[in-house]
Amino acid sequence: MRRRPLARILRLPRSADRIRADLEEEIQFDIALRARDLEASGLSPADARARAEHEFGDLDATRRYCEDLDMQREAEERRVNLLDDLRSDLTIAWRGMRRAPAFAAVVILTLALGIGANTAVYSVVRRVLLEPLPFRAPEQLYRLYTVGTRPNEDTDKLSAVELDMLARESKTLAGITEFGWIGSGTYSDDKVAEVWPTAMVAPNFFDVLGTRLARGRAFTSDEAQPGASKVAIISYARWQSNFGGDAHILERTIEMNGVGYRIVGVLPSNFLGPTFTADVVFPLQIDAALRNPRSNVARVYRGIARLRPGVTRMQLESDLAMLHPRLQAQYQQLRGAGAIIPKPLHAAIVGEAAPVLVLVMVGIGIVLVVTCVNIAGLFLSRAVARRRELGVRAALGAARGRLVRQVITESALYSVAGGLLGIGLAFVLKRAFLVLIAGLLPAMTEDVPLSTPLLSMALVASVLCGIVFGILPALAATRLDMRDALGDAGTRSLSAGRGAARGSRILVSAQIACAVVLVVGAGLLARTFMSLMRTDLGYEASQRQLAFGLNPTRSKYPDRASTMVLARTLTERLAGLPAVSAVGVTALTPWMGGMMAVPMRIEGRPVDTDPPTIQFATASPDYFSAMGVPVRSGRAFTNTDETSSPPVVIISEAVARRFWPNASPIGARVRIDTDVPGDSDRVREIVGVVADTRENVLSPITPLLYVPTSQFAHFSGTFVIRATRDAATLVPQIRDILHTIDPGLPLFYPRTVRAIAAQSMARQQLAMGLVAGFAILALLLAALGVYGIMAYTVVARTREFGIRSALGATRRSILGLVLRNGLAVAAAGIGFGLGLAALLSRFMASLLVGVSTHDALTFVIAPIVLGVVSIVATVIPARVATRVHPVEALKAE
Question: Angle, nearest 10°, between helix axes 387-395 and 400-437?
Fold first, then answer.
C-alpha cells in the first residue's frame, strides 16, 4: 500500500505556497481547456494558447484575487473544522472516560501525583537555589571564613582585629560588617514569658546588606558602646503577633532577660538573616572587644563583606591573602591561624541543603518520567485493545489522521484533568515538603508561594506530557489492517499488535532503568545512614533523656548565689518526679560544641608560652549518669565538691591520651584560665577520666575539661533528665514545676537527646527518606509496567498458547516461556539503569559518609530487588497463560 505523507494523514491545513500552487494548477487547467477548444476550430496550438490567455484576462490580478479568496476560505474552514473536530474528539474522549472509570482514575491520579510533586519541589528549589537574596546587589555579598588548623576550631568565625584590619585596609571591599552571639532570650510582659531567638549585629549591618527596615532605623555607633542605652530591633512577625502591628511601636519598650530595651526599628517581612533567624537583634559591641587585648584575637564573630563594583572574587581572594601575613606578624596569638577565605553569601546560606535539594529535584524528575512512561504504556495497551473500535470508524470513512487526533485528544484530556488535580495537590505537597526541610533551611522556607506562572507551567507540562506520550499509542493503534481489526480475533492476534508490544517493552525497560537509578541512590544513602548510626557518640542518645535550657534574668537573679539556689531547687524538684532517675546540669553539652576553649598548663612541667586550648564545660554530680557518659577511671563529681572544697577537674580520654599517654592523670594538677572574674587561673586536681564525646556523628572527638558547676563562678544551665520512660511525656510536669518556682522563667527548647543527636544526620536522613520514597514509587510503577506488558502479551498470544498446549506443551514450559520474555525486558532495563546509576552516583558524594559512590553491595542488591519485583510482576500473567485451554483458544478463531 502506498504510504501517504504525514500531512495528508493528519489533514494538516494548506500552506500559502500550497494554495498558490493549487491556484496556478487550476488557472493553467482552464487555459488548457479553452486552448483545446480553439484548436478544434482550426487554430494552430500556439495561436490557440495565445487566444485563450487573452480571453482569460489579467492573469496577475486574477491570481491575487483568487489567492485572497482561497486564503480566507482556508482560514474559515480551518477554524470550523478545528472546532468541530475538537468538540467531537472531546465528546468521544469524555464518553470513553465514563465507560472506563477505573482506567481514568489510575491515569489521572498517577499524573496528578507526578505533576503535583514536581511542582511543589520545584517551587521550593527555585526559591532556595535560583532566586536572588532579598538584598541590594546580592551577588556582591560574601561570607568570610577561616581555614581551621586546630581540632574543633570554628571555621566560620573571625576575630575583632581581623575584621577591623579588613575594614581599614582592604582595597576590594566597599564595606564589612559583623554579627554574632546567636542564641535566645526570655521575653516577658504582664501576660506571658516566651523564648525569643536573638542575635547581635554591628551598626552598619543593614547598610552593608542593603536592607531597608520596615519601621524605624538601624543602630548607631554610640548605641554599640559599653554603657549605652539599651535598644533593640524586633522582627516583623513579632511586631504583628505580640504588638498587633502597633503604629507607635517605636515608642515602646520590651523586657528581655529582665532588662528593658527601647525598640528603634522593625525588620522587613522578607528579612533573611545570614545563617540565623531572630525575633530580636541587639547592637554588637565590637569596638569594646578591640580595646581588650585578651579577647580581641578570639575568633567569635561572623563577618559579611560587600565587594566594590567591578571587583571579582579572585581579586578579593588575592587581597585577603596579602592581608593575612600582616595580621599574623602584628598579633602573636594569630600566628599559625588559618587564612581568611570568602564564600558567596547565597552559597553560605544554602550550605549543605543544596545537594539535598538537587538530589530531590533529580529524584522527583525521574519519578515524573516513570509516571509518563507508565501512562504511555497504559494508553498503548488501551489503544491496542480498541483496535476493533478504531477499525469500525476507519471502515465508516474516518481517515487515519482523524483517528490519530482523536486518540491524542483523549490523552490530552486525561492530562488536563491530571494537571488540574496535580496543581491542587501541589499546595498540600509543598507544605509537607517545607516541613521536611525546615530543619535545613528555616529562614528561606517560611514563605514559598506557588506563583501563577509556575502553576501555568505545571498545567502546560501536564498537557505536553499527555500529547508527547500519547503520540506513540496513537500511531500504533491506528496502523490498521481491516481484516484483522474487524475480525473476531482482532484483539488476540499477535501480529496485529506486534509493533505495539515492541513499544511497550521499550517503555517498560525505561521504567525499570529509572527505578534502578532511584534504588541505587536510596541504597547508598541507607548505607550512609547505617554507618552514621553505628558511630559512637560517647554518650547515650535515647528517648528516655530530655534536655532543656534555663535562662535566669539578671533582675531576679543578680549573682551566682541566687542562680545556684534556683538550680538546686529545680534539680531537687525534678529528681522528685517518679519517672526521673537522674538530673544533670551543665554549661556545655556535647552537641553544643565550640562554646568555650581555655588554655591549660600542667603543674610540674615546663611553662609553655603558647599553652594548648581545650574545650571547657561544667557538670553537676549526676550529669555523667544522666548523659550516660562512662567514667573510665577515678570518680565523678560529688556533692562534696563545693566552693569551699579543693578545686577539682575531670578530663576526657582524648586529653588523657594527649598529655599522659603512658601514665594515669589521676592526681595531676592543672591550671585553667577561664577568663571569668572570680574563677580565673585556678589550679585544679584531676579526679576522674570520662569517655570521649562527639558534637555529632559527623564531628571528630572533642577533648573536654569538666569542672563542678558548684565551683564555677558563672552559671549557665542546660538540664539533662534521665527517665524510666519516654522523657518527652514529662514536659508538662517540668513546665508546672518551673512555673511554681518562678512564673517568669520559660522552658528553653525541651527536646529528647535522641532528637538532638539525630539533627546531625538530618541531611542524610531527609535525602534517604525522600529518595527511598521515590524508589518505592518507581518500583511500584515498574512492577505495574511489567505486569501490564506481560498481561497484554498473554492476551495477544492466547491462540499461540492454545496451539502449543494442543501439541503437547506442558504448563511448565509455557510458564518458562512467559517468564523468559518478562525477564528479558527487565534485564535490559536493569543493565541500562546500572550504567546510568554509576554515572549519576558521583553527584551524591557530598551526602555519603563512609560509603563509596560505587559501593559494590548496593550495586548488587539493586538489580536483585528489581529482578525479584519483575519476577513477581511476571508470574501472575504467566500463570494465566498456563490455564489457556486449547479448545477455548481455537474457538476464538
Answer: 140
3-state SS class at 665 = coil
Cα angle 579, 582, 585; round to 5: 130
Residue 566 and residue 520 share a domain: no
Q: Are residues 368 and 486 in the same domain?
A: yes
Q: How far apart are CA 397 and CA 224, in angstroms?
A: 88
Assess whether pLDDT exceeds 60 at residue 769.
Answer: yes
Boundary-marking domain end, from 674, 708, 741: 741
Residue 278 included in any domain = yes
Q: How many Å apart are CA 183 and CA 162, to the nearest integer?
A: 23
Answer whether 379's CB lies under 8 Å from 418's CB: no
Burial class (CB in 10 A: 0-12, 13-18, 19+), 794: buried
Q: Domain range spanning residue 317? A: 148-338
Rounded to whole angstroms, the Cα distance separating 516 from 835 reads 10
Q: Specify whether 70 is located in the same domain as 200.
A: no
As a whole number of angstroms, the distance between CA 385 and CA 407 comes to 13
pLDDT level of residue 307 (50, 70, 90 thresholds): very high
**Statement to judge: residues 705 and 772 lie in one domain:** no
List CB contacts of 387: < 8 A, sequence separation 6 or more: 477, 480, 484, 485, 490, 491, 496, 497
Distances (CA, A) of 840 to 765, 832, 833, 843: 20, 12, 10, 6
pTM, two decimals, is 0.71
Q: DSSP letters along 560-623, please?
A: HHHHHHHHHHHHHHHHTSTTEEEEEEES--TTT-SS-EEEEEETTSPPPSSPPEEEEEEE-TTH
- CB within 8 A of 418, min separation 6: which ones? 107, 108, 109, 110, 111, 112, 115, 462, 466
Number of separate domains in the chain = 4
Based on the fold, state whether residues 689 and 825 are members of the same structural domain: no
The whole-number pLDDT of residue 606 equals 78
- What residue type is assigned to position 224 of the chain? A
Determine, yes or no, domain membership for 256: yes
152 and 262 co-located in one domain: yes
State how far the Cα of 751 lies from the Cα of 546, in Å rounded to an integer.
6
Rg of the chain in Å (alpha carbons): 39
Where do the H-state alpha helices sit in 742-810? Answer: 753-759, 762-796, 798-806
Q: Which of 270, 269, 266 is nearest to 280 (CA)?
A: 266
603 and 657 fall within a common domain: yes
Please tell me whether residue 643 adopts helix, strand or coil conformation.
Answer: coil
How many residues belong to the chain?
A: 893
* 778 CA to centre of own chain: 19
Average pLDDT over residues 627-645: 89
Question: What are the residues facing 187 on neighbouring strands?
Answer: 194, 256
Select from 186, 188, 190 the least CA-distant residue to 198. 186
Whether 111 maps to a domain, the answer reads no
pLDDT average, residue stretch 475-495: 51
> Residues of 108-146 as b/e, b for ≥16 C-beta within 10 angstroms?
bebbbbbbbbbbbbbbbbebbbeeebebeebebbbbbbb
Confidence band (pLDDT; 50, 70, 90) for 445? low
Identify whether residues 365 and 432 lie together within a single domain. yes
Cα gap 512→510, rounded to integer Å? 5
Q: Identify the burial level of 864 via C-beta atoms within 10 angstroms of its C-beta, where 0-12 means exposed, 13-18 middle and 19 or more buried.
A: exposed
Q: What does each C-alpha distance from 115 to 282, 424, 666 come to in angstroms?
A: 45, 10, 65
User: Does any domain span residue 98?
Assistant: no
**Span 795-817, average pLDDT:** 74
Could you give the C-alpha distances from 293 to 179, 298, 332, in angstroms and in order? Answer: 20, 10, 11
The rounded distance, in Å, linking the Cα atoms of 668 and 683 is 10
Specify the residue for cell string 588575592: 318
CA of residue 41 relative to chain centroid, distance: 88
